[in-house]
Amino acid sequence: MALYSLSPKGLWHRLKTASQAQSLEPGNPALPKHVALIMDGNGRWARKRNLPRTSGHEAGLQKVREIAEECGRLGIPYLTLYAFSTENWKRPKAEVSFLMNLFYDSLKDVTTTLDEQEVRIDFLGIPDGLSPKLLNLIKEVQAQTAAHSRLTLNLAINYGGRNEILHAAKELMRAAARQEMDPEVLTEKQFAAYLFTAGQPDPDLLIRTSGEQRISNFLLWQTAYTELYFTDTLWPDFGPAELRAALVAYMKRSRRFGGIKKGRGK
Ligand code: FPP
Hints:
The protein is of the alpha/beta class. It is built from 9 helices and 6 strands.
């Protein structure tokens, strides 16, 4: 129904309902339950300032803290960050080792404040290539935060979507060989339980910064019906205000999951 065909009272009600649905009140059920983020543009941010690429990653880490805090404040229960892909090993050795040290130091740092923040930290990815020192810390942080429930922060480190699906397929084939599962009755839900995100809801919203418009092997299974939001803002400039703009845009979308909008039946 067109807005101009409504009575002033009906129009007011409709506008009020729409603005409530898009409000950023903490806990608004219209907010996404799971936000995934491709944090891109650290290198370009640094280059624009004549700084080394590593300064861009440092500035990016500061935004990780701000965005995680904002999600916690808004009551968004899951946040997944693409920190290092299985393809990122192709970068110069010095940059890779800088990033690995940055992951280690920042995780060491957060272990002291995590209890107050009620953040559960989980990791998506494979151990191959990561140092035993970082892997031990990852295990420690996972165990230390396992009981926290305000925000689950998934860090995708050494993660690739195809690799994750392949890993799940191999596990399932092993289970079938042991006759512990029957391939004929395997469901999508059972398959998803073999992914690194087992037990978590699929992302409702995927944000990619820096103007690139691709998925880059991130959460390939889980993003089947995710809303995509691309912004030109470089990751080190992406703060809580930019996140809120993305959330408002998300709440204006009509999600149909392949169906039709309620009330639009034939
Ligand atoms: C992509 O920008 C960014 C990365 C590959 C690294 C992201 C890592 C951080 C922000 C640190 C996060 C730390 C933790 C603990 C989660 P790019 O380097 O590809 O930028 P460019 O495309 O401009 O070169």
